[in-house]
Amino acid sequence: MNAKNGSDIPLGLGMALMQNADAFFYFSALDEEKQQKIIDGCKGIKSRDDMKNYVDGITAIG
Predict the structure, then answer these.
(1) Which of 26, 31, 38, 51 has the fewest CB within 10 Å, making it most exposed?
(2) How many Cβ atoms sit within 10 Å of the Cβ of residue 52?
């Protein structure tokens, strides 16, 4: 899965987005800068549950 700027989305983020349709469509509609902000924000996340919580709150982040 790639962001609009062509960079790869981290695997954990991509998997979590695929499990949350609302967050997936929201992320897909964002411009490159906002997508990158979300990608950068997930880099320190280590657990599946934390990533799910991060993605569940993605509309508040963007």
Answers:
(1) 31
(2) 17
Structure tokens at 17: 């987005």
Spatial contact of 5 and 11, defined as CB atoms under 8 Å apart: no
Give the Å distances, CA to CA, from 21 to 25, 27, 44, 61.
6, 10, 23, 16
Question: How many angstroms separate the CA atoms of 41 and 54, rounded?
Answer: 9
Beta pairing partners, 8: 2
pLDDT on residue 60: 78
Whether 51 has a pLDDT exceeding 80, the answer reads yes
